[in-house]
Request: fold
Amino acid sequence: MSDNDIPETPDSPFRHEQTARDEAPQFVLPLVVHIEKDAPPARTDALETAARAVLVMLSDERSLGEGEWAETMRLWQDARIRKVVRRARGGEWRKASALPGITVTGQAAEVRVFPPVPSPSSRLRSSRGYPIDGWPKELAKLQVSGTELDDPQPPGPAAAEGAVLWMSPDVGMSAGKAMAQAGHGAQLAWWELSEVERKAWQAAGFPLSVRTPEAGRWRELTASGLPIVRDAGFTEIAPGSCTVVADHPALRRRAPRP
Reply:
């Protein structure tokens, strides 16, 4: 399948090529996953909880209209869409939980999502011309590595209702990277839905599943017309890698047949 078979908008925030979004101030959405040494969450549970956390942040009243997070949320969505997942345990988690944000729980996983902060590469400058570092110290010192998680048992079939975020069977990723990619997929689905469809999904509690299809099914999904995440290649994987297909019942009904 050629690159031309991948349906993307010309200015997609998930394209690896240079776009107009690169000229805007760059922000990062921080997510922190709670991982205790003796009781880590299952990998799929963590991925699904991270994806749901992104949706909760996008739909929160503080992120909309004149809400307190609305300006940074708009700036973040006008630029590249970057997410960084860090891990915390014990006192680190308690300190992170005290910062403004939203904690979302899964079966056992806990993920706290925070309002976007300026990226280290951001064009935002202080009055003296220095780059603005918006990371709270409680988050800045948390580790990005160490989010290696496993599924004790293979996940069952995807839920009949809600979205399915299909992860590429061809791209190996750490759990932290995969959590960010699942969040990207959830966000693409959210953007593609109508306001009525968004409200219905939100009212249902954002039901979703994260699954990895067989190779043949993956090829069908990438040619289905459903939204696709192609990673910009900042970490771990090559630029342009196709990582997630966002499959929501409303989008499935609208997608053209391959």
Summary: The CA atoms of residues 72 and 184 lie 17 Å apart. The first strand starts at residue 27 and ends at 34. The two ends are 13 Å apart (CA to CA). The helical segments are 43-59, 70-78, 90-97, 137-140, 175-192, 195-203, 215-222, 249-254.
